[in-house]
Amino acid sequence: MVKKVPETSPPDGDAHLALARESLRDLLDDKRVPPPVRAALAEDYQQLKLLLEKIEHGHIHIAVFGRVSVGKSALLNALLGETQFSTSPLHGETTRAAHARWQEYDAGGVFLIDTPGINEVAGEERERLAHDVASRCDLVLFVVDGDITDTEIKALRQVKGAAQRLLLVLNKTDRYTPAERELLLKTLRERAAGSIHPQDIVTAAAQPAERIVILVDAAGNETETRRRPEPDVTALRERIWDILKAEGKTMAALNAGLFAGRFSDRLTREIVTVRRDLAEQVVRNYCLAKGVAVALNPIPVADILAAVATDAAMIVHLG
Fold first, then answer.
1. Which residues pair with 253 in a beta bridge?
2. Any idea which architecture 11-318 has in CATH?
3. Mean pLDDT of all residues in the chain?
4. What span, in angstroms and rounded, lies between the C-alpha atoms of 137 and 292?
5. What mean pLDDT comes out for the span 32-45?
């Protein structure tokens, strides 16, 4: 079944996307940025271009994060209804971000993105990759398979800082009794309090363990066999759908605005290096204007985009 996006999506969503699109285009197309600065930020400009294309095509990106072997790839495969991501038991099997289109939801294109485990060898590089992907994704699924560890809590907060919408998924719930599941959920809610709303903590059994089944034929002969139950990702799927229906466009606009804000900050720093003679006074003046623009704007998404617009004006002045 393909999940349809209602025609009556929140009215602010389209306006927020239009603001985000305008901000990204202004940053990308500004011809007055000095060539040395544009060259120094070539990779950032490429990411900005990809983000603009994502907005223009109405795409939503959902990334999965977690330790090795918590079932990240299996979770995405269960959502997709087919095997697209490797679920090898070998640690380090997922070495780079990979993505697949979620055909079940026709919101203009929803893509599921797999990432390496947060506790992999060569962790610094993979943590950077995780942060980069999260900062460009609209929704993050942070997966655990039991009580959350201190390392996971730290990583969760880091990812939460880069991606503004996050679900905490307790996977492999088939290993626990109903009482154990409830206790784990209670513990997760307590440990994630202040970071994640309770309704954004959901359960899943993406790849249940095989079970022994006894088959009895017509003659009464018993045969023992093993069968793997069907995946259960119903709660996760429904929560994702609810979020996309209620917040999809605004969520994408907010993420784009945050990326544009970080980009404009980097761009300003590069220009300051090139044009130190003008930088100090201009930055002081525009920082004041940026604060005023945000203070006068009542909409959070528009707050960010107003700040980006002010940054763009400063970039033009310095350039």
1. none
2. 3-Layer(aba) Sandwich (3.40)
3. 75
4. 29
5. 84
